[in-house]
Protein: ABC transporter ATP-binding protein
Amino acid sequence: MTLLDIHGLTIRTADGHTLVDDLSLTVAGGERLGLIGESGSGKSLTTLAVLGLLPDGMTVTGSIGLAGTQIVGAREKHLTRVRGRDAAIVFQEPLTALDPLMRVGRQIAEPLARRQGLKGTELQRAVTRALEQVRLPEPDRIARAYPHEISGGQRQRVALAMALACEPKLLIADEPTTALDVSVQAEMLDLIDTLVRERDMAVLFVSHDLAVVARVTDRVLVMKDGRAVEEGDVREIVRRPREEYTRALVGSARRLESALDARRAR
Ligand SMILES: Nc1ncnc2c1ncn2[C@@H]1O[C@H](COP(=O)(O)OP(=O)(O)OP(=O)(O)O)[C@@H](O)[C@H]1O
Structure:
């Protein structure tokens, strides 16, 4: 069944400049779609639009159906209900989602209390469980820490725990590993892969890196200048890119892989 149905999505600035142009895509329940394209191609704006989080002043036309709710034009009170429950987002920079002045445990507790009505010891246990699920060692210490007292990789795991806290049907991951060290990136991708599989969640995974997208998604949509240029099975696109732009993306991903192979062989 279709979980996310975007049709003819167009996003413009207040002065009429088109940033996303007539974009259509669907994600079925449990399916994983990668959104790929170079910087500025409109990937992030598309994901923000799904949660009704576009910056003030931008205008949106077209439709975005998310688990039966029409997001375009929806009132804030309806959007609040959808966020976290139907879709949740993990950003490239975890500090975007975390409050610097609040202990990590309280930040995870907040959505759990609000959505699941948990309190007291039960709530504390749920926070510990949420931190354990994202494979954070010493969950109790992490829960007492402020965001700046833990590492970037740990912060991203905390942000993932928050996004998963209400078991959304769709996880949106916007370049979730780009800001991390290469050694931590692979661990994070594996973690997302496992957790999403266990929960049978759908994923909209945004990246400019085809190698990363190929690792976690089944299908990929390539964007350029706010438009979809190509869409298909991720292996098929890597093997036989149809569009020139996609060929260039595949070519640069290959060059990077062989450069890394050459380094490993040294
Ligand atoms: N608040 C804003 N006001 C005006 N233009 C914006 C705003 N946010 C983004 N844009 C423009 O919209 C276009 C698409 O931006 P978007 O962030 O969606 O790209 P992206 O593909 O996610 O890029 P990146 O990989 O660098 O995050 C860009 O040209 C960007 O400059």
Q: What stands out?
A: The longest helix spans residues 244-265. The chain has one domain: 2-260. The domain at 2-260 is CATH 3.40.50.300 (Rossmann fold). Residues 13, 19, 37, 39-45, 55, 208 surround adenosine-5'-triphosphate (CB under 6 Å).
